[in-house]
Write a structure and sequence with these properties.
about 75% helix
Amino acid sequence: MQQLEEKVAHLIRAVDELSDIVTAQQAEIDRLTRRVEMLMRREGEREAQSGGGVVLGDERPPHY
């Protein structure tokens, strides 16, 4: 019985640690998502101000 209690205590501790890790990762994902959104808005504003055309990611530059 004592071995089972030790095993359960270990598993509970491991689950708590993993939960903390997942929480920290979600906070980082949220922070990075906000940053990407900010950069996308900034780039969109820069493109709008420069009056340039739309650049597609898979488009080759004209010198190719």
